[in-house]
Batch of 3 targets.
Target 1
Amino acid sequence: MQTVIRRYSGKGAKELFDLLEKRTADVEELMRSVKGFVGYTLARSDDGGFSVTVCQDKAGIDESVQKAKDWIAKNAGNTGAAAPEVSEGSVLIHLK
């Protein structure tokens, strides 16, 4: 399995997470549509927030990153949030 963390901070990040909180059903539908989807977490932090996506393989991670980017451009471009800091890696332990 593979995972990606997308961390949003700085100008517009809090506004982005306000919108994401209002649109959780849309976000859930979007992430569940990713091929090889295993899990997704969206969390708020002091300076914005972050998401953690787990997929069966790198192709799923790449798809999730692109879908998130496209959704934000279409639905939250007016927040002014900068592109996220992205970290990817192989899953060592996944607990449910």
Target 2
Amino acid sequence: MLTWTADELRRIADADELRVAAVRGDGSLRRATTIWVVPVGDDLYVRAAHGPTSVWYRGTRARREGHIQAGGVDRDVTFTDVPDDDPVNERIDDVYRSKYRRYDASYVDMMLAPDARAATLRLTPR
């Protein structure tokens, strides 16, 4: 299993936004969507603000593979579900609060809501 380099992790973590595109069943990339990304330890996490019904999130279901761009990093990734009861969710919440506190609180609150938490993914390089 591949891991992020320290440089990739730092650059992506420092970026406000990440562009994510899921791989379709036929192997082509879906249209990229701009979302927020947070680091926890040596991992990167994203959430769908509108929960599991979000178009980009549903696209991750086909092959669990995609492509991301952030902070000058351009990588193919694997999407892994994070269960609602995984303790890492509390740490993810804390990082969303800290990293994005300068934005309107309603946007941050959306990322902490049950629907968004139900659509949490870990990004792993491939």
Target 3
Amino acid sequence: MAHVELSLSEVFPPAAGTPPEHESDALGRWSSTVSHADEPCLLIDALTRVVAVSAAGCELLCLGAPDDVIGLPLLDGGLRLLDFTANRCELADQEVDKIPPLLALSSGGLARGLLRVQAATAGAPDSTVDAISTPVLADGAVAGSLTFFSEV
């Protein structure tokens, strides 16, 4: 299993020349980083809408193109989660709230877990991914979550 370490010590002020819409909130500051990342990662807001996702994240999570899911609720944007039973049923609602990106929002702390993602193409194998999420804070409140994924 891949080893992931995550440490966010402080948020630096935006650099000179940063567009004003990205200066106003913590999510805006992370959005560009996530969008251009080589690693599979995802940024959602407190309402679970996708703020940014890397191309590698879209590929791993079978979401299509990043522009297709930006602004949509995470679970309405094409993410299909399955349970770990042999029947591979859709994840029950009470279990969905426990996936790392959503758990980081509700708990305000780090969250880690495995997800089984349904393949976009019929007949293709499903993916199992390790997800580690951290809440993104703005003015002391949880404004969203940042998640990094690794294929298992």
